[in-house]
């Protein structure tokens, strides 16, 4: 079976916003077993709420985008997620949402964390050491 790959919010947004990472983000369309966490869904809802100024359109855009990218949203056990993120925060020294995303990837059983976040990429060895999850920037 193909490994589970966790997709960070920035990769999904790059695909739809066609930003500087768009060509790399397009590679998602050829991958299988893509998952993301409820944190990503929250971040996407927040992004579209600010952009569209309409709750119904924001929710619809988020759901459409996740379906378009073929990413399954996994439910979090928030107690486990918080404890794992708290443990990792001392080791990874990343921003709060980044630590939560990596903890979510770990708890989902993902072996690969796909991101364009430069800070996470710069700490890929530390992430691998403490979680067993490989950071991939689709290069």
TrEMBL record:
Among the Pfam families in the record, one is: PIN
InterPro entries, A to Z: PIN-like_dom_sf, PIN_dom
Q: Where is the signal peptide?
A: none
The record places domain PIN at 6-121
Name under which the protein is recorded: PIN domain-containing protein
- Taxonomic classification, please? Archaea, Thermoproteota, Thermoprotei, Sulfolobales, Sulfolobaceae
